[in-house]
């Protein structure tokens, strides 16, 4: 049996340089082989810096028979084109979030991957940080009683208007970028899918959504309120309020590998507020996600159920993002079963 998954990277992306390349290089079941850029000179420079092979173009990387999988950290508006090309070439795919600009495009990618038996991951690396597993367990054990409100904020000051995040044609906008994390985490922490969404997105002149808010109605009376945006004071947190306690997470979605999370549990005892710090370890969430991706490919034959549930999770996330867009465009409450 194969021991390592051979991977190529499409594009000399900021996120690849900051986290992904080192993370792939630390995962025992991954072998990062090559990188491609629109500019071959840049690919050669990055390849020599990181000990990789430079491919002449994105196309030549996709068609390199040595590679088992591709990592796609391109602007969101290009994800669909390259995910489809990679899947048609038989490569497994780990694509940066959001997987595509809208629900129809996500469905197209997932359908093709299903047909071609391609393992498809959307890189919500925060799914793998132990702090959230810890919180999920605490909620299950009843530490906060019945959870009824999730509140999540993610946004940052952003000044480079030339970045793809400000370009409509490259799939820019804060919902698919920062907002997607808050949507993902609300669903993960409340462990269910919203029944209905009411949202607004505020556009700039480009026009891309620079900020937004959303209200979700979950089954069993729980709700979520989300805020996200560019050009905002930095926020990267969430809280879950329950009948018996409130959990607050200081650094939620993007967290450097060496940073130990701060989690607090507030409870009332004899009419007093008692706050306990909850221990969670620092972790490299990119490494954890990449390792899971490679292991899933290596054990693909036995992991059919898991692979199918990943497709479903990706579709469920995209369905909620689509409901937010529809609610904004039609200025109304949207039920999730309207998004087919
Ligand atoms: N998971 C996370 O923690 C995390 C964090 C940040 C970003 N992201 C996601 O990662 C992806 C990339 O984000 P980023 O900030 O790293 O992006 P970026 O550096 O601004 O751009 C990514 C790369 O895409 C390539 N590219 C191809 N066509 C392009 C075009 N027309 N305009 C600009 N670039 C083009 C460029 O590489 P070449 O010039 O070499 O071809 C560029 O370096 C996005 O999906 C984003 O949402 C994820």
From TrEMBL:
Q: Which residues form the GFO/IDH/MocA-like oxidoreductase domain?
A: 132-247
Matching entries from InterPro entries are given as: Gfo/Idh/MocA-like_OxRdtase_N, Gfo/Idh/MocA_domain, GFO_IDH_MocA-like_dom, NAD(P)-bd_dom_sf
Q: Which GO terms describe its molecular function?
A: nucleotide binding; oxidoreductase activity
- Recorded superkingdom: Bacteria
One of its Pfam families is GFO_IDH_MocA_C3
* Family that this chain belongs to: Belongs to the Gfo/Idh/MocA family.
| Protein name as catalogued | Dehydrogenase/oxidoreductase
């Amino acid at each position: 049996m194969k021991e390592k998954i051979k991977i190529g990277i499409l594009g000399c992306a900021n996120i690849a340089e900051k986290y992904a390349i080192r993370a792939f290089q630390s995962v025992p079941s991954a072998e990062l082989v090559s990188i491609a850029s629109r500019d071959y000179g840049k690919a050669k420079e990055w390849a020599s810096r990181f000990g990789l092979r430079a491919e002449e173009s994105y196309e030549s990387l996709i068609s390199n028979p040595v590679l088992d999988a591709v990592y796609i950290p391109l602007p969101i508006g290009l994800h669909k084109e390259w995910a489809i090309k990679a899947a048609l070439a038989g490569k497994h795919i780990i694509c940066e979030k959001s997987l595509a600009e809208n629900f129809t495009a996500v469905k197209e990618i997932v359908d093709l991957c299903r047909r071609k038996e391609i393992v498809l991951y959307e890189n919500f690396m925060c799914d793998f940080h132990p702090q959230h597993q810890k919180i999920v367990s605490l909620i299950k054990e009843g530490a906060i009683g019945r959870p009824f409100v999730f509140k999540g904020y993610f946004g940052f000051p952003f000044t480079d208007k030339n970045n793809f995040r400000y370009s409509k044609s490259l799939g820019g906008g804060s919902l698919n970028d920062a907002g997607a994390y808050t949507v993902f985490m609300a669903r993960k922490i409340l462990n269910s899918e919203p029944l209905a969404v009411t949202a607004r997105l505020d556009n700039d002149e480009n026009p891309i959504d620079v900020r937004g808010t959303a209200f979700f109605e979950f089954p069993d009376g729980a709700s979520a309120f989300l805020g996200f945006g560019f050009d905002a004071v930095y926020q990267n947190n969430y809280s879950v309020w329950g009948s018996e306690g409130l959990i607050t997470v200081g650094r939620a979605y993007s967290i450097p590998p060496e940073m130990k999370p701060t989690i607090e549990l507030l409870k009332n005892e004899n009419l007093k507020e008692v706050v306990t710090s909850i221990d969670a370890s620092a972790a490299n969430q990119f490494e954890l996600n990449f390792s899971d991706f490679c292991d899933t490919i290596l054990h693909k034959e036995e992991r059919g159920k898991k692979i199918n549930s990943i497709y479903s999770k990706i579709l469920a996330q995209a369905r909620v993002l689509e409901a937010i867009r529809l609610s904004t465009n039609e200025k109304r409450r949207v039920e999730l079963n309207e998004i087919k």
